[in-house]
Task: structure prediction
Amino acid sequence: MKHTNHRTIVGFLATSLALAPSLCTGLCAQDVVLSEVRVDSTARWIEIHNRSAQPVDISEWSLYYATLTPLMPQNYWWPFPAGTTIAADEFIRVFWFSNPPATVPPGDYYTGTSPYGYLFSLGGEPLNPHAGALALVTTQRAGEMATPSHFVDWVNWGDTGFAREDLAGINGVWNVGTFTPPIPPNYSIARNPGAIGNVPYRVDEWFVDSTPTPKASNIAGAEIESYGIACTVPGHHLVGQPLLRTRSMPLLGNRDFGYRVENTTGFFGEVMLFVYSAAPAPTGWRSIIPPLPGSTCEEVIDPTRILAAFVVETNIMGTEVDLPLNTCSAGIAGLELHSQALVFDWLPNAYPPFQGVSNAVRVKIGL
Result:
């Protein structure tokens, strides 16, 4: 799959620039979430975030880890110790299958490696960066481990088909069959708090983060918003609507940030014009895209404030557009980019002259 080289574009963009708390338990289960997972040789931990405005007692909860390791139990539960409370809008971190150091920092927990430290004496396995699943479970009782309502959060990475994944699906906290990418060394999978409950699939709440932030917010100032409508024209040869989305969060230091346009075909002389603008189209702006019978395609970004535009060859099923942010200065934090793609054929006398127009995506670069 081809990727665009954006050193010049990145360089251009870089220069353009009182209530008393009470203790909450089961009723606040939806406010306590898995927030970040890191798995490599130097750090194997799970971050948990209390998103509510009051402390939450999780002393009766357990942390569940599922694997696909042959000849192993593949199901492991670790009970949170008595007195485990997460303060309002605070984080804790659990080092899975790890023994504690002499001094344990506040907010850190270690599961140990003895099978007797885990529920049902099943022991554990180290977190696997290639594939695994984690859940927050609001019980420590064996007879309740098959009850969907106790599985209040879930995440898969690298694969699907884990034991009890169906329970998370029944309880509506995961879409069965979906999973995030595997977790590379020195990276994490992190959750965008603004996306929780606001995207069609739970997996879209997660992104691969090149800048792990243990016991802290995963994003600071980064924003993503889709607007406008993707459309095709009569007679097009695309796989479907050319949907534009981001691959991860627009954070300084994220070398993997970029875009993807879904449903491109990758042949018939098809190419894509990708445009960055500083703003959406003004209210009442008339599209400059030539109208075609039966088509409502239009640009919804401001063509008078273009920051950069380029043409890229398309690929089968989807086309990637890279915008690495690992070499940018802190001065572009807060920069807004409005992007949209036009898919067309460069062959002479091609008809229709263009195949479709993507929705637009606004991103705000964060720290």
The chain has a mean pLDDT of 86.
